UniProtKB/TrEMBL annotation, chain A:
<dbReference type="GO" id="GO:0045271">
    <property type="term" value="C:respiratory chain complex I"/>
</dbReference>
<comment type="similarity">
    <text>Belongs to the complex I LYR family.</text>
</comment>
<dbReference type="GO" id="GO:0005743">
    <property type="term" value="C:mitochondrial inner membrane"/>
</dbReference>
<keyword id="KW-0679">Respiratory chain</keyword>
<dbReference type="GO" id="GO:0006979">
    <property type="term" value="P:response to oxidative stress"/>
</dbReference>
<keyword id="KW-0472">Membrane</keyword>
<dbReference type="InterPro" id="IPR016488">
    <property type="entry name" value="NADH_Ub_cplx-1_asu_su-6"/>
</dbReference>
<protein>
    <recommendedName>
        <fullName>NADH dehydrogenase [ubiquinone] 1 alpha subcomplex subunit 6</fullName>
    </recommendedName>
</protein>
<dbReference type="InterPro" id="IPR045299">
    <property type="entry name" value="Complex1_LYR_NDUFA6_LYRM6"/>
</dbReference>
Automatic annotation (TrEMBL), chain B:
<feature type="region of interest" description="Disordered">
    <location>
        <begin position="39"/>
        <end position="58"/>
    </location>
</feature>
<feature type="domain" description="4Fe-4S His(Cys)3-ligated-type">
    <location>
        <begin position="149"/>
        <end position="188"/>
    </location>
</feature>
<feature type="domain" description="4Fe-4S Mo/W bis-MGD-type">
    <location>
        <begin position="286"/>
        <end position="342"/>
    </location>
</feature>
<keyword id="KW-0411">Iron-sulfur</keyword>
<dbReference type="Pfam" id="PF13510">
    <property type="entry name" value="Fer2_4"/>
</dbReference>
<dbReference type="Pfam" id="PF10588">
    <property type="entry name" value="NADH-G_4Fe-4S_3"/>
</dbReference>
<dbReference type="InterPro" id="IPR010228">
    <property type="entry name" value="NADH_UbQ_OxRdtase_Gsu"/>
</dbReference>
<dbReference type="Pfam" id="PF00384">
    <property type="entry name" value="Molybdopterin"/>
</dbReference>
<dbReference type="InterPro" id="IPR000283">
    <property type="entry name" value="NADH_UbQ_OxRdtase_75kDa_su_CS"/>
</dbReference>
Length: 132, 744
């Protein structure tokens, strides 16, 4: 699988938004098909189910749903394919996959907001970073 | 972008001359095809049947012709007629015509030396090519800049210059922004014929700021002219003759000017480079951010060059109204202070007297809790000398909302004259000082308080022989001046017309009085200022067409603080404070502060006030935030963030906004633009960036002053030019400067 993917050259730019959209679906399917392999390689059976991974993939893709420029979509697809390759080729380790796709970006600490309840948006952002 | 512009310029000069933005930001030297080949110069070029189209002036400059047509003349540059004012040189005429002549020794702000010969052009009917920088343009002159003779001449000059210039570009700090490098690429020959040994020159020690590699010097004497003409120190000079010529200090001596860093910029090669910056970075890896300086009240325009999260160097930007193209050494070299002694986490002092890092949530909760335990009138807020207008506005609103009106800015004294803007600003403007013919400096030493203002005064004195009278402690001003006295009695004598200097003031057309902001701190400041006003009225210093009554402020926050009304009396506010909020204020005296007072220090450096603080809230420095500052002439400018904040620091106004919410007195703004809207209701002039809001001349509304001037002589306000605020005090370079350069 990995080798076949590597053999494929960078495809030409999508001519239209339609084509780009099509490629996104192809990519999604490709990623979903590799889920069983990934579960196998990284021993994920006891931490996650295939359907959870599928929805994580969908979520990652939906993060960019406002992108309308086919060139940008192509670029994002390229990055996605690369990431998928890295995972499938076992270029990552178990904790990478768990950290990025099972637990999620927020990490283990989940602020439940009990402390900040009632405080303004400004204050919540202020506590996390200077840049907002 | 730069690549693109270069390509455009080479392929089609018409294109780039039509977009002045490109032309203004960078000086391109355009080689032509023929300049590359050595033979081309010798061959007789066929007359060009087709003239290139006329160009815009170099750098998009505007030329103002004198109103009287007799004072203008017409010359022909490469076949195009241009009109120029009388007294222009050939080189300036070419610039007006849009032809950039290569040069090394010529600098528009220095006198003309004419010794590098790089600017040779051909003038019709003159037997030899002429040095255009030193040749006055004459009516009807036909100047040719692109002929084989001119090209050959430039190539020859390049060859001579490179003869003794070392081939060390790869390890030279000037590499990439070197005039010699650029011009030898554009005008030099493609091969060398020199097989002898190169000469070498001993390096000179010019102090902790300027590094010298004297073998690289091409003897253009720009640095010598800068030192004598602009900086006003006779430290540098040319020694020896012929191939033994070298630049140096005549005796083993350091360069002791507060403007010495500028020789780094004007040196066209890498002979004079920045010592602290040596081998730290190459200029093409740096990101430039155009911002302003806050180490004094001048607000010099600077570019902060950064690499990643680190400020690598600071260089000047041109602003004719403020700093021309120079900056002081403090401005240029204080940047290493931005990396030292920084506060990066909120901290609370524990019972054992040690600071413990905590989260923002805990720190703000503690502060808010203490805030609720004190009486409203025991709350005091103090803004520091580097505060921006946004944070001062937030601080004032916050303290007011907590029920107190004790909010002040350090350095403003017990009762600053904050009612009328013209009472605390430099009314002539910095550039306007050039029109003056008599200066009276009262209790101010511009050389240490505002080096760029001093440079203007010096320029005026040099150009028009303006007279300077100085009242204050003995000072080392670098121009001719008359030391009239050390205390206010001299001022009174002048006001009463009993002093010999009165006759000088009497005969002046545009007299200027500059009063130092150090006077604000004196007990008798009301009486002093009313005496100064008497002098002003007596000698026509303020009249409808000229307001020469100036106040020279000391720090960047001062003007905006006075605009926003941070004017509580420090002595009283501190004495009665149980909760003291220091927003970067380190120089305010805390001796009178009650023992049990709770002190919050919000700032970017662990400086003096931290020793007394109970809670530390880390904030961002001027290189990391967007802030509004007003300089001493009332010109509002913005800083632009160049690097990210350090650690867990936050912008000043955000901290106060967050604290206000935790304390239950939420301020009504959530974004920078909302803060600025709020500012516009208090001081609309702080919204108009890069503009100088003219102040209306005061109609006499002042109550008569009953106070008497005391006889205490004026004090030196700034003891150490190099260390005046938290950033400069943290800087190692500034510490070295004060150790070696200050005369003890
Ligand atoms: S040191 Fe630099 S500025 Fe001074 S004469 Fe030499 S080349 Fe010119
Ligand atoms: S620039 Fe004219 S001689 Fe140097």
């Amino acid at each position: 699988m990995a080798f076949t993917m590597r053999a494929v050259k960078v495809p030409p730019n999508s001519a239209s938004l339609e084509e780009a959209r099509h490629r996104v679906f192809d990519f999604f399917k490709q990623a979903c098909r590799s889920i069983p392999t990934v579960m196998e390689i990284y021993n994920l059976d006891d931490v996650v189910t295939p359907s959870q991974l599928r929805s994580t993939i969908a979520k990652e893709i939906r993060k960019n749903q406002n992108v309308t420029n086919p060139k940008v979509i192509d670029m994002l697809l390229f990055k996605g394919t690369e990431e998928l390759n890295n995972i499938v080729e076992h270029a990552k380790q178990r904790h990478h996959v768990i950290g990025q796709y099972v637990i999620g970006q927020e990490g283990l600490v989940h602020e439940l907001g009990s402390k900040d309840q009632g405080s303004s948006d400004f204050l919540k952002k202020f506590y996390t970073s200077n840049y907002f | 972008m730069a690549f693109l512009a270069r390509a455009l310029r080479q392929s089609n000069s018409r294109l780039s001359s039509r977009c002045p933005a490109v032309a203004a930001s960078c000086r391109w030297i355009s080689p032509t095809a023929a300049a590359g080949s050595p033979e081309a110069g010798a061959a007789v070029a066929p007359a060009d049947p087709e003239l290139p189209p006329p160009r815009e002036p170099v750098g998009g400059a505007r030329v103002e012709l004198p109103p009287n047509p007799e004072d203008a003349l017409e010359v022909f540059v490469d076949g195009h007629a241009v009109r120029i004012p009388k007294g222009f040189t050939v080189l300036q005429a070419c610039e007006v015509a849009g032809v950039d002549i290569p040069r090394f020794c010529y600098h528009s702000r220095l006198s003309i030396a004419g010794n590098c010969r790089m600017c040779l052009v051909e003038v019709e009917k003159s037997p030899k090519p002429v040095a255009s920088c030193a040749m006055p343009a004459l009516p009807g002159m036909k100047i040719k800049t692109n002929t084989p003779v001119a090209k050959k001449a430039r190539e020859g000059v390049m060859e001579f210059l490179l003869m003794n210039h070392p081939l060390d570009c790869p390890i030279c700090d000037q590499g990439g922004e070197c005039d010699l490098q650029d011009q030898s690429m554009a005008f030099g020959a493609d091969r060398g014929r020199f097989t002898e040994m190169k000469r070498s020159v001993v390096d000179k020690n010019l102090g902790p700021l300027v590094k010298t590699v004297m073998t690289r010097c091409i003897q253009c004497t720009r640095c010598v002219r800068f030192a004598t003409e602009v900086a006003g120190v006779q430290d540098l000079g040319m020694l020896g003759r012929g191939s033994g010529e070298e630049i140096g200090t005549y005796v083993e001596k350091l360069m002791t000017s507060e403007l010495s860093g500028n020789v780094i910029d004007i040196c066209p090669v890498g002979a004079l480079t920045s010592k602290p910056f040596a081998f730290k970075a190459r200029n093409w890896e740096l990101k430039g951010t155009e911002t302003i300086d806050v180490t004094d009240a001048v607000g010099s325009n600077i570019r902060v060059d950064s690499r990643g999260p680190e400020v690598m160097r600071i260089v000047p930007r041109i602003n004719e109204d403020i700093n021309e193209e120079w900056i002081s050494d403090k401005t240029r070299f204080c940047y290493d202070g931005l990396k030292r002694q920084r506060l990066n986490d909120p901290m609370i002092r524990g019972p054992d007297g040690r600071f413990k890092a905590v989260t923002w949530r805990d720190a703000l909760a503690v502060v808010a809790e203490v805030l609720h335990q004190v009486k409203p009138e025991e709350i005091t807020g103090v803004a520091g000398k580097l505060s921006d207008a946004e944070s001062m506005m937030a601080l004032k609103d916050f303290v007011n909302r907590m029920g107190s009106d004790k909010v002040l800015c350090e350095g403003n004294g017990p009762n600053p004259p904050a009612d009328l803007r013209s009472n605390y600003l430099m009314n002539t403007g910095i550039a306007g000082l050039e029109k003056a013919d008599v200066f009276l400096l009262v209790g101010t030493q511009p050389r240490v308080e505002a080096a760029m203002v001093n440079a203007r005064i010096r320029k005026t004195v040099g150009a028009t022989q303006a007279k300077v009278g100085y009242i204050g402690p003995p000072a080392d001003l670098n121009y001719d001046h008359e030391h009239l006295g050390t205390g206010p009695e001299t001022l009174v004598e002048i006001a009463e017309g009993r002093h010999p200097f009165c006759s000088v003031l009497q005969s002046a057309k545009n007299p200027v009085i500059i009063a130092g902001a150090g006077l604000f701190e004196r007990e008798d400041q009301d009486a002093l200022f009313s005496t100064i006003e008497t002098v002003a009225k007596k000698f026509n210093v303020t009249r409808p067409d000229w307001n020469g009554l100036n106040v020279l402020l000391l720090h960047a926050a001062q003007a905006a603080a006075l605009d926003l009304g941070l004017v509580a009396n420090p002595a009283e506010s501190i004495k009665s404070a149980k909760f003291l909020y220091l927003m970067g204020a380190d120089d305010i005296s805390l001796d009178k502060l009650p023992e049990d007072a709770f002190v919050v220090y919000q700032g970017h450096h662990g400086d003096k006030a931290v020793y007394r603080a109970n809670v530390i809230l880390p904030s961002s420095a001027f290189s990391e935030k967007e802030g509004t500052y007003e300089n001493t002439e009332g010109c509002t400018q913005w800083t632009i963030p160049a690097v990210p904040t350090v650690g867990d620091a936050r912008d000043d106004w955000k901290i106060i906004r967050a604290l206000s919410e935790v304390a239950g007195a939420q301020l009504p703004y959530d974004s920078l633009s909302a803060v600025r809207d709020r500012i516009s209701t208090v001081a609309p002039n702080l919204i108009h960036v890069d503009e100088k809001e003219p102040c209306t001349i005061s109609a006499e509304v002042k109550p008569p002053v009953k106070q008497q001037v005391s006889s205490t002589p004026f004090k030196t306000v700034i003891e150490n030019f190099y260390m005046t605020d938290a950033i400069t005090r943290a800087s190692k370079i500034m510490a070295q400067c004060s150790a070696t350069l200050l005369k003890k």
